[in-house]
Write a structure and sequence with these properties.
Layout: H1 2-5, H2 7-10, H3 23-37, H4 39-54, H5 57-60, E1 61-62, E2 70-71, E3 76-82, E4 93-101, H6 110-124, H7 151-156, E5 168-171, H8 181-186, H9 190-196, H10 210-213, E6 214-220, E7 223-236, H11 241-256, E8 261-264, E9 273-282, H12 285-307, H13 315-339, H14 352-372, H15 380-409, H16 415-448, H17 450-458, H18 476-481, H19 492-507, H20 514-523, H21 543-548, H22 552-562, E10 568-574, E11 577-581, H23 597-605, H24 607-628, H25 630-634, E12 649-654, E13 662-667, E14 672-677, E15 682-686, E16 694-697, E17 709-714, E18 720-725, E19 728-733, E20 738-744, E21 752-758, E22 768-773, E23 777-782, E24 787-792, E25 798-804, E26 815-820, E27 825-831, E28 834-840, E29 851-855, E30 860-864, E31 868-873, E32 879-884, E33 894-897, E34 901-902, E35 908-910, E36 913-918, E37 925-931, E38 939-940, H26 946-949, E39 958-964, E40 969-973, E41 977-983, E42 1024-1030, E43 1037-1042, E44 1068-1071, E45 1075-1080, E46 1083-1089, E47 1104-1105
Parallel strand pairs: 1-2, 4-10, 4-11
Antiparallel strand pairs: 3-9, 4-7, 5-7, 6-7, 8-11, 9-10, 12-46, 13-14, 13-47, 14-15, 15-16, 17-18, 18-19, 19-20, 21-22, 22-23, 23-24, 25-26, 26-27, 27-28, 29-30, 30-31, 31-32, 33-36, 34-35, 35-38, 36-37, 37-39, 40-41, 41-42, 42-43, 44-45, 45-46
Helix pairs in contact: 3-4, 3-15, 4-16, 4-24, 6-11, 12-14, 13-14, 13-16, 14-15, 14-16, 14-19, 15-16, 16-19
């Protein structure tokens, strides 16, 4: 709402987007990173605080209204409010009271009780063993007595004998002793009697609670130990003779008993009065309907918002987290209100969680959405810190304006509603506290864990904006539900709370219209005109607060006597006639207890159990965290939890395996790397748990020897490793760690262009392996059956072959594409039990085709040419779009794209698409990114799907082109970034964005500012550095760090002298979504960009690669099927 008020000054209703170094963004971001790195500490702190506030709740509240604990809200509206003086308003009853004081908080002394009994008998007549039930009907009494009533006449008018305009009844603490002075005199345990008979009822079934017969009470151990005043109350109707007798005698009594008592007022007559309305209104069917509707709409909004969070797989966990946070906020607020004596019993209990829920949803979804739009390649702590920093200002401002509005309203509404406002303000603070500790910790754990981390990387950049074409306009209701209108995200909770406060205010003023109630709130608050505390006698509690202390059970009982058919009654309440025993010491102690008595009882009796309970709960939560994050702890990934200077680029070094250079590598998505070296050793490295790495074969081990190894590949399930030698196919079971079947294969002296697992199903065989020879033939083998089948693919020698696992059709077995040296393209598919191959006829010239790359998510592939790239549909062989590029160095093209984004119609769209290649004439790495023309939309992959995706076409997409000089050995990662290893140049160049040549109808969205690298290390023994380009969908972020540096403190870091001398690094292989493994002689460097879980499925990308020259690239292949090749000119090892 604040941003709407500032609209005339700012010109926009959107919250300001602060610079990253602004204190209100930088400090929260640092806090968010701290929480993500110290989840255990912050979460346990939040649990401890919640335990401290939740444990006292049952001890501070009660449902019997007879002890020192606060009154727990029920399903009723209760209130005792003064009414404006109106001549036409006739009260239902008249209430008169006499307060009897002794010394301060000594009203239960025997002499004070006896004196009070004397005063009571003077006003009402003898009340010993009071039993007013009389069989004589009122009709037998003739006339209306004006003098003193006899005991028989007085009892006859009692309401128990029939309700008339002359009825009356009373309650007094002296009824504990039946009004008998002898019983009071003989009672040796007056305090015990008072506590034992606190549930005693009068003749009209009004319970003699301590709250109505005493004022200024003191409790210990939930028992009354002292009272400041005895309260004798007379309630009578308009024409009651008893009321007139009381009024007449009080004036004489003040003068007659002046020797023992001091009366206030002195004459006993001039006592002002005030109209009060006492309510006990059970929650009505209309109230239930409105509350149910409010909860239903809030819940539906929650489910709708939750359904749009495709990045959250554990939605049940999110619901549990939300419920826990709301329960903790509500109960914590109840506890604080009980401590500071805020009476919440006036409002039905079903109303309290609603206001907290509505506010929690805003902040929670705002934070989740902010995490989702952060770059997936960043670490968990960076993402959490960035998201919390971006949302802190809006969340904090919302909380602040909420508090100011709520506390401002609490000054003008009725006391019962004011207490509710206080609760709402306290609950808002607790909700923000738990959001910043408990929820932020849980969210960081979920982001770090596999389920959410993998999905976040695939989620849309603007998940809260559905894909739509520009001409398409949604209705206001649709936009509201989808969160496109600020009403649904920034002020919804405030509107819910303000609406409820207004309804509650009107509920307590049902004699007025809603508009009149609203105007009255800001015009003149209903004033409490009852006399204030009598300063000179230091009353512990004044008449006004005593009236408002009356609980709803007392109101219900009195209403049942006065107006049995109603839920409220109006009483004219006279200020009490106060009698103070002469000689009493009315000086209060120097320091009164300021908190609720139940708090001191709790501290006295429950401190030790509370400490034990907190220790047990914290320990259980710690054990649960150890269970949930066992892999994080076992993996030794302390960098996520500690270390203030966490790096975007992290490096691990494996240097204790091979004796000679690593020549081939393959990898699995769960973090295992297979390496084969010139020392004839094959290692399986577990990147997550390096202590569990093992040797498959070595010269020292007897048994099978698969060398020379020409290629290797791993299946999609990360279960089988296939090694291809010159005449055999060797199978290794990665899970069981044992050899599988061996199949003879005749390569005919040809090197393989592709080695991959086929997804063809067979009842007899577990796997099918396809080898594509360079001479244009292919062999499919079934190792379990020992069978092979040979096919002719192309009559010309091949230069490239890639598998294509069609994700759009799960029933289709793995296909493949080949490119011959003369430029013809063939594709192979299975029909039944046989392979069919056919030549692809493209409409354009084939002479300049360099390579083909599979795009399995969209059943298509890329055809790389000299200065363009064709996107081709696999089934129809039609060109979907042609990308204009710089002159591409042969066999350097790579690509990656965002996770396919499905619309409600089932069509798939793209959030981004990036081509990466080496420029032929200059050697720079060109990163060419295509984005939707309107931020938040998608690119329709095919033109015929435009109407279904409601996105933009390739022709309308925006292009951003960046270059990196001296890229060295590089790879494009599925997480959406490019990483490379290069020798440090003498002088670090600045990567400059370049304007693309006029690419047809493509238009540039915005200029890209210069990207500055970080300062490189000056160490002479460190010749290499790692560079990365991230956030390609935004402004782009460029960073470097030395490959070997003592200052970074990475695990398993090797010094330069620990590995063999090398001329160039390689081979390189992708591991997971954000990591690469690069060989440096006999060592392997694991380079991770941001956070990597090593457990998500790897999209159809190459899991293997071969050594390339400096300036070459890692070429994308289909997932897990392409072979790792030996260096050019070598015949294996």
């Amino acid at each position: 709402m604040l941003w709407y008020l500032l609209y005339p000054l700012r010109g926009t209703t959107e919250a300001p987007n602060l610079a990253p170094d602004h204190p209100f963004r930088n400090w929260p971001a640092r806090y968010g990173r701290y929480v993500a790195r110290h989840v255990d500490t912050v979460l346990l702190l939040a649990v401890a605080v919640a335990g401290i506030l939740l444990y006292p709740f049952p001890f501070l509240y009660t449902t019997d209204f007879t002890n020192s604990a606060s009154n727990l809200p029920h399903h009723v509206w209760t209130n005792a409010q003064p009414l404006s003086t109106r001549a036409d308003l006739e009260p239902d009853v008249i209430m008169r009271t006499v307060w009897v004081h002794g010394s301060y908080m000594r009203a239960l002394d025997r002499d004070v009780l006896l004196g009070a009994l004397q005063i009571q008998n003077e006003l009402l007549g003898s009340t010993k063993d009071f039993n007013p039930r009389r069989p004589v009907p009122l009709a037998a009494i003739t006339g209306l007595p004006n003098g003193d009533l006899t005991q028989h006449e007085r009892d006859t008018f009692h309401v128990i004998n029939g309700r008339t305009n002359m009825s009356w009844f009373y309650h007094s603490p002296l009824q504990y002793w039946s009004g008998d002075a002898q019983k009071i005199f003989n009672d040796k345990d007056i305090i015990g009697t008072v506590n034992a008979r606190k549930t005693q009822s009068t003749s009209v079934n009004v319970t003699l609670r301590h709250s109505i017969v005493f004022s200024g009470k003191r409790f210990e151990d939930r028992k009354l130990v002292a009272a400041d005043a005895l309260v004798i109350t007379l309630i009578h109707l308009r024409d009651s003779p008893v009321g007139r007798q009381w009024e007449r005698k009080t004036a004489a009594l003040a003068a007659r008993m002046a020797d023992r008592w001091t009366a206030y007022p002195r004459d006993g007559r001039s006592m002002p009065s005030q109209l009060y309305e006492f309510q006990f209104r059970p929650i009505s069917f209309w109230d239930l309907t409105m509350l149910s509707l409010a909860y239903f709409l809030t819940f539906m909004y929650f489910l709708h918002s939750l359904s749009k969070l495709r990045a959250v797989k554990s939605k049940a966990g999110l619901i549990v987290t939300l419920v826990v946070q709301i329960v903790a906020s509500v109960i914590s607020s109840f506890t604080v209100c009980a401590v500071f004596k805020v009476d919440l019993s006036k409002i039905p209990q079903a109303c309290f969680p609603l206001v907290v829920w509505s506010m929690s949803l805003e902040n929670m979804f705002r934070l989740i959405n902010a995490v989702i739009v952060t770059p997936s390649e960043d670490s968990t702590s960076s993402r959490i810190g960035q998201a919390f920093g971006e949302t802190f200002l809006v969340s904090f401002t919302s909380v602040l304006q909420y508090l100011l509005i709520i506390l401002g309203l609490s000054r003008v509404v009725l006391p019962g509603v004011s207490a509710f406002c206080t609760f709402a303000a306290i609950a808002t603070l607790f909700d923000f506290f738990y959001l910043s500790t408990f929820f932020l910790s849980v969210l960081s754990v979920e982001v770090r864990r596999t389920e959410l981390s993998e999905a976040l990387a695939k989620s849309s950049l603007r998940h809260n904006r559905s894909s739509s074409q520009a001409p398409y306009r949604k209705s206001w209701t649709e936009a509201l539900l989808q969160g496109k209108i600020a009403l649904s995200t920034r002020i919804a909770g405030l509107i819910v709370t303000l609406g409820f406060i207004l309804v509650a205010q009107w509920h307590f003023s049902q004699t007025e219209t809603l508009l009149h109630t609203l105007g009255k709130m800001f015009r003149d608050r209903a004033k409490s005109e009852t006399a204030p505390l009598l300063i000179d006698i230091h009353q512990a509690r004044g008449p006004t607060s005593w009236l408002r202390l009356q609980d709803h059970e007392t109101a219900r009982e009195v209403i049942h006597v006065v107006k049995p058919w109603a839920h409220s009654y109006v009483a004219r309440v006279y200020d009490p006639l106060v009698f103070v025993m002469k000689g009493s010491n009315r000086t209060p102690p120097a320091r009164e207890r300021s908190l609720s008595p139940a708090v001191y009882d709790f501290a006295h009796h429950q401190t030790v159990p509370l400490i034990i309970a907190i220790i047990v709960v914290v320990s259980l939560v710690r054990l649960l965290m150890n269970y949930l994050l066992w892999d994080e702890i076992a993996g030794g990934r302390s960098g996520e939890y500690g270390g203030e200077d966490e790096q975007l680029i992290s490096i691990k070094t494996v240097n204790s395996g091979h004796a000679l250079d690593v020549a081939l590598m393959a990898a699995t998505p769960d973090g295992r790397v297979v390496s084969a070296g010139l020392d004839r050793m094959i290692w399986v490295w577990n990147v997550r748990f390096l202590g569990t790495s093992y040797v498959v074969t070595s010269p020292d081990k007897s048994g099978r020897d698969p060398f020379p190894v020409l290629a290797m590949a791993i299946d999609d399930s990360s279960e089988w490793l296939v090694l291809l030698s010159s005449s055999k196919i060797w199978i290794w079971d990665l899970k069981a760690r044992k050899w599988g079947p061996v199949v003879e294969v005749d390569l005919r002296g040809q090197k393989p262009d592709a080695l991959f697992f086929s997804t063809r199903k067979s009842r007899e065989a577990r796997m099918s392996i396809v080898v594509i020879r360079r001479n244009g033939t292919m062999v499919e083998t079934w190792p379990d059956l020992g069978q092979s089948q040979e096919y002719v693919v192309c009559k010309s020698p091949l230069s490239c072959a890639v598998p294509l696992a069609d994700r759009a059709d799960s029933n289709q077995a793995t296909s493949f594409l080949t490119l011959s040296r003369r430029g013809c393209i063939h594709k192979g598919t299975t029909v039944g039990d046989v392979w069919l191959t056919e030549e692809v006829r493209l409409p354009s010239d084939e002479s300049d085709i360099q390579a083909v790359l599979a795009v399995p998510d969209y059943s298509s592939y890329l055809v790389a040419r000299t200065s363009s790239v064709d996107l081709v549909d696999f089934h129809s062989s039609s060109i979907i779009y042609t990308f204009r590029t710089e002159v591409i160095r042969p066999r350097t093209l790579s690509f990656f794209h965002s996770h396919p984004r499905k619309t409600q119609t089932g069509a798939k769209g793209l959030r981004s698409f990036t081509l990466v290649y080496i420029k032929a004439d200059g050697g720079e790495c060109v990163i060419q990114t295509y984005l939707p023309s309107v931020e938040g939309e998608t690119i329709s992959f095919r033109d015929d799907e435009l109407s279904l995706t409601r996105g933009c076409s390739w022709q309308d997409a925006s292009e951003i082109r960046r270059t990196v000089e001296n890229p060295g050995l590089w790879a494009s990662l599925p997480s959406g970034c490019v990483v490379g290893i290069r020798q440090k140049p003498p002088k670090q160049p600045l990567p400059q964005p370049t304007q693309p040549p006029a690419p047809g109808s493509l238009r540039r969205r915005r200029a890209t500012p210069p990207l500055r690298p970080s300062d490189p290390s000056d160490r002479s023994d460190d010749l290499y550095e790692v560079w990365t380009m991230t956030q390609l969908e935004k402004k782009g972020a460029y960073a470097t760090r030395p490959l070997v540096s003592d200052g970074f403190g990475d695990e398993y870091e090797a010094q330069p002298q620990d590995h063999l001398m090398i001329s160039e690094p390689g081979p390189i292989v992708k591991v997971g979504r954000g990591s690469i493994a690069a060989a440096f002689g006999n060592t392997i460097r694991i380079i991770t960009i941001g956070h990597e879980s090593f457990s998500g499925g790897l999209p159809d990308e190459d899991r293997v690669n071969r050594r390339r020259r400096a300036g070459g690239s890692f070429r994308n292949k289909a997932p897990g099927h392409s072979p790792a090749k030996i260096p050019p000119g070598s015949r294996g090892f």
